[in-house]
Amino acid sequence: MTKPRYAPIQYLKGVGPKRSLAFEKLGIFTVEDLLYHFPRRYEDRTNLSPINKLEAGQARAVKGEVLAKGGHRSWRRKGFSITEAVVGDASGKITCVWFNQPYLQNYFQVGDSLVLFGKVERYGKNLQLSSPEFEIIGKDGDDALDIGRLASVYSLPEGLTQRNFRRLVNSALNEYLPQISDCLEFGLRSRNKLVNLAQALRSIHFPQGPEAQDQAYIRLSFEEFFLFQLPLALRKLKKKEKAGIAHKVESPLLEDFISGLPFELTAGQKKAIEEIKADMACPRSMQRLLQGDVGSGKTVVAAAAAVIAVSGGYQAAFMAPTEILAGQHFEKIKNQISKINPSVPLRVDGEHSRTVKYQNREIKIELLTGSIDKKSKMVKLRQIKNGEINLIIGTHALLEEKAEFKNLGLVVIDEQHKFGVGQRALLPQKGPNPDILIMTATPIPRTLAITLYGDLDISVIRELPPGRMPVETKCLEEKERRQAYEIVKGQLRQGRQAYIIYPVIEESYALDIAGAKKMYDALKKDEFREFKLGLVHGKLAQAEQARLMRKFNDRELDVLISTTVLEVGIDVANAACMVIEHAERFGLAQLHQLRGRVGRGHEQSYCILLSGARTPGAQARLAAMVKYSDGFRIAEEDLKIRGPGEFFGERQHGLSELKIANPLTQMQLLKRAREEAIRLLNVDPRLEERPHRLLKEKLLQRFPEYEELMVVG
User: Can you give the CATH number for the domain in which 339 is found?
Assistant: First the structure.
């Protein structure tokens, strides 16, 4: 018999070619896909209620005899049919109603014994069961799939009822379960007290009780976590095999860089630098994730790593996702490095070029972006290739084929989730296995990060620099917009600056939301006519965006009206107020990132969320923003609201494909799966031994891109 992973869903009895198209829309192409299409919830139908004890609003199971039946067409809606049956037991009787299912009139007969489950509703003075699911005792078989048990509820293909879908799943289990082999070996299952796969699949769809359901849930969650962790652990092992650069980390240049900073490093920054130094001194390539809240000072830590590389004669490349962010990193790092030897003036080579002399060594810092003119760009590319430039900060322009390095020793990637997987891999390939430092301002709890980013070592900066005050966040309804504007004007009149953020550039009538362009014109003429306003959005040329940001930074503008182009990296200490219009249209992490653009000075700052939120999810996001300022706590709330798949997205595409496991609620199980993955790969890194071949097959079926990791060498 064909194994379920190879059996097309159309050949399962009851599906066929036409109906299979609806299954495929849900990602169900094979019988195995159907078996791994897990219930989204269960309904407890184990207790039968006497009919006279039913109350409106409840979902209940009852057993009774068909006393009468009938059907008619609705006089209100053309073509709409109604089927009715009166069902009674020893305690009373109730009417059951089904809509647009006329075939039911001939399905059961007066005198049939039924078990039904449905919602009890009030219709006039009487109660009724609306569209209940049912079993005919004696006709549908003693092994009922719907009544007297925990009944599975699924996301359904179009055109199928829950009842019919359960029968298809049951049919697939009966026919194909003997052909399923368990990819987890017996020893691993025994150590972790896991039931076998066949038992887990049967019990997750048709549990005999809560204990069986729980055992199935744990087993299948473990399998998903285990398959997710194997590639991460395998990738880390592969990286350890490659020789890297052993940098000399105890350099006078680094000491002078740190002592020349105009501020004291926080404990988190110092710890992160020490962890990076230990990595860079090692003869293996550093693979480190630096995560910290917005404004926690990750850039200076990355600059310290660059100084280590440059002091040993290597080049460092720093890549950011936007020209605005790259330009800001350039200005910040240039100013920090210029303090190394203040007795020697900076040499200005051009608008985006600076050189610092230090003990007969020149540190030449350059900015490379797509908007730089072609002639300047060619000069810089030539200087990068011959090693004249040893610290280069840029955007995707660093990934161009023409961008060649003489001796690339360190790669820093900021906001790495903004780059595609392939893009992130390109820059490190331009050097002899350089050290890699990835930065993110999207923090997640450390224990979760260690497990999810298993191929990276992790440094965390939790505290903010001294003197920073938490941003005061208010949530106002849209009718209170005038109050929000008065708060902004109060700040502007004290000499501070403000942002007003919109979710879209152009006004959207379909979504009933204002656009940045139209509101810029309106606010300029009316509400903020006494102030200087600027407009920034993603459709502007990068050079124009950068020009407006410089004007705002130089206080030539009071208010910057913008879309989410400001989400990352903008650092203007004098900006003390932000209004986010239609805040319900933003994700929680995005709202927190936007809020991080204010509160960078020593004055009290404000973030005002203007919203017409109606959905529970939107209200939960806004409530979390008002309640919490810590990014790690925000991340926990975001995980709870969105779920792990949406939260992590493409960075961990395996995680976004989790169908049953939840890393937030099953942290201990995830950690156990990680430990078992490391244990296995230490014994059989290529999964070549006989007990692991099926596991390897399933791993590559799930993640075909990891086949290269299985290659010896």
Answer: 3.40.50.300
How many Cα atoms are found within 13 Å in the side-chain-facing hemisphere of 148? Answer: 10
Distance between CA 200 and CA 182 in Å, rounded?
Answer: 11
Domain assignment present for 347 = yes
Residue 183: pLDDT above 60? Answer: yes
Q: Collapsing DSSP states into helix, strand and coil, what is residue 212?
A: helix
Tokens coding 308: 């280590």
User: What is each CA distance from 144 to 65, 137, 154, 156, 161, in whole angstroms?
Assistant: 17, 8, 17, 20, 16
Q: What is the CATH number of the domain that holds 124?
A: 2.40.50.140
Amino acid at 598: V
- Give dist(CA 645, CA 655) in Å, integer: 6
Question: Is residue 401 assigned to a domain?
Answer: yes
Of 346 and 673, more confident: 673
Q: Which two tokens stand for residue 620?
A: 């939960």
Cα–Cα nearest to 15, from 167, 202, 154: 167
Tally of domains within the chain: 4
421 and 490 in a common domain = no
* Domain identity same for 236 and 259: no
pLDDT for residue 288 is more than 70 = yes
CA 257 – CA 650 distance, rounded (Å): 37
* Mean predicted lDDT score pLDDT of the chain: 83
Domain range for 94 is 47-148
Report yes or no on 520 lying in a domain: yes
Do residues 228 and 270 share a domain? Answer: no
Q: Which of 71, 72, 67, 73 is nearest to 94 (CA)?
A: 67
Residue 481 sits in the same domain as residue 430: no
Burial of 228 (0-12, 13-18, 19+ CB in 10 A): buried
Stated pTM of the model: 0.69
Dist. CA 57–CA 112, nearest whole Å: 27
